[in-house]
Design goal:
Layout (H helix, E strand, L loop, with lengths): L12 E13 L8 E10 H9 L6 E4 L15 E4 L6 E5 L4 E5 L4 H8 L4 E2 L11 H7 L6 H4 L6 E7 L5 E4 L6 H7 L8 E8 L1 E2 L5 E8 L2 H9 L7 E6 L11 E8 L7 H4 L11 E2 L11 H14 L3 E6 L1 H4 L6 E2 L10 E8 L5 H13 L6 E6 L13 E9 L4 H14 L3 E2 L9 H7 L3 H11 L8 H5 L6
Keywords: Oxidoreductase
Organism: Kineococcus mangrovi
Pfam families: ALO, FAD_binding_4
Length: 470
């Protein structure tokens, strides 16, 4: 076994200090703020005791706060900040396995493993997500059709349960059901403390990409259906502001990890350099309505014009995958009222809903400047895991009058098409609709209630959607 030099396992009480503070919390969309007592510590004994003695409002874990809605909030209760649990205990280079604390961000993990020719197999649209959050939401990326979700690559996880005990779960072990219930369980089965992740091997830290412009939404969908299986990564951006014959114009960005032979001579000198700087932090000064029809049209025009059709383009991770990570706190650009990201998946045979939903958004007068369409491969056995075989569409909508009616309409359209919403993005749907979208919810509740019969683990989202009952 060859490990990365300089990585030393943390002691069980890596940081004996603990602090409790009353804090106002929101999700990344900055909507529906609530106040909770937040426990900041890396001491596992302190965390375990806090769970055992949780009051009537219960407890939930919180990582870097990148879920868009309310799954990491617990009004009037306890929230455990796991960000101090961020140690990389070991990386076995030969076996391509990382052993990390659940509070470690994907950004930190990538920076540690990429120089050794290793890669995190599944990444969402930002690297500022913890390993525990990636498990709790069962995140996906632009390569779901080839790599599945994040937990497909989790070899084991340590879960702190309601009785204060730590259980080691594996996907095929005696507690497989609890592993699957924790997968996409949004922290409601316990607190993930540590995990072993299987990594991919790469020759470079770059991507080789093809860009295709699409003149309208139908052209976009036709291009997406063609040849997608020949790319490891695939996603599209489209314009949901422009009306008429060019409605839905945009581009496809598809590619794979670049090989050494793909790189120009200047990049071959350091092919595993992980160059992903942060350029700026958005100030919290933007007024409501900053994103309107005029500004959105201008942004869409610039973005569309600069994305010319080309093939074999070498791009770094920021250019190809994480453009928004260039700017810290970019969610502030939506102003103090915040925004919601609406993401759904529908079966391939109901592709008609994609255009219909886009038309509903355009006709409503609501604006979305960030729109992504992707294809999913097969789903997994986790009852609450979001991806299923089909198309997934995500739009960012600033909060303003009438948005709730639009989203209610979209919910019913998605349900009629046999689709569902993503828990990590949801901030406003109803319990009845969610139960109709996830028919395996009763099976998940059975496992969850068995491991937490006193219902200690609970969140604002869990109350809103009645995920935790009794």
């Amino acid at each position: 076994m060859v490990s990365i030099p300089g990585l030393k396992p943390a002691s069980r009480s890596a940081s004996p200090s603990a602090e409790r503070r009353t804090e106002r919390l929101t999700g990344w969309g900055r909507t529906a703020p609530t106040t909770a007592t937040v426990l900041h510590t890396a001491d596992l004994d302190v965390i375990a005791e806090a769970v055992r003695t949780a009051g009537p409002r219960g407890v939930i874990a919180r990582g870097l706060g990148r879920s868009y809605g309310d799954p990491a909030q617990n009004a009037g209760g306890l929230v455990v900040d796991t960000s101090a649990l961020d140690r990389i205990h070991d990386v076995d280079v030969d076996a391509a396995v990382a052993d990390v604390d659940a509070g470690c961000s994907l950004d930190k993990l990538l920076r540690a493993v990429v120089p050794h020719g290793l890669w995190v197999p599944v990444l969402p649209g930002t690297r500022q997500v913890t390993v525990g959050g990636a498990i709790g939401a069962d995140i996906h990326g632009g390569n779901h059709h080839t790599q599945g979700t994040f937990t497909r690559h989790v070899l084991s996880m340590d879960l702190l349960t309601a009785d204060g005990q730590i259980r080691t779960l594996t996907p095929d072990g005696p507690e497989r059901e609890l592993f699957l219930a924790t997968t996409a369980g949004m922290g409601l089965t316990g607190i993930v403390l540590r995990a072993k992740i299987r990594l991919d091997r790469v020759e470079t830290s770059y991507f080789i990409a093809d860009v295709e412009q699409a003149t309208d939404f139908d052209d976009m969908l036709e291009r997406l259906q063609h040849n997608d299986e020949n790319y490891t990564y695939s996603k599209t951006w489209f314009d949901s502001v422009t009306k008429g014959q060019h409605m839905g114009r945009g581009f496809l960005l598809r590619g794979s990890s670049a090989k050494l032979s793909d790189l120009p001579p200047e990049l071959r000198k350091d092919p595993l350099k992980f160059d992903a700087p942060q350029l700026a932090t958005f100030p919290d000064v933007f007024p409501p309505g900053m994103l309107n029809t005029l500004t959105a049209k201008a942004l869409n025009e610039v973005y569309y014009r600069k994305s010319k059709t080309k093939s074999g383009v070498v791009q770094n991770i920021t250019q190809f995958y994480h453009l928004l990570d260039l700017f810290a706190d970019w969610n502030r650009a939506y102003g103090p009222r915040g925004f919601l990201q609406y993401q759904f998946v529908v079966p391939f045979e109901r592709a008609d809903l994609l255009r219909a939903s886009m038309e509903a958004i355009v006709d409503s007068g609501h604006i979305s400047a960030l729109n992504v369409l992707k294809r999913f491969g097969d789903g997994n056995d986790a009852p609450l895991s979001f991806p299923q075989r089909g198309y997934t569409l995500a739009v960012d909508l600033p909060v303003k009058k009438g948005l709730d009616q639009l989203c209610d309409l979209l919910d019913e359209m998605v349900l009629d098409a046999g689709g569902r919403l993503y828990l990590a993005k949801d901030s406003r749907t109803t319990a009845d609709r969610f139960a109709r979208m996830y028919p395996e919810l009763p099976a998940w509740r059975r496992v969850r209630d068995a491991v937490d019969p006193e219902r200690k683990f609970v969140s604002d989202q869990a109350r809103r959607l009645r995920l935790v009952t009794g």
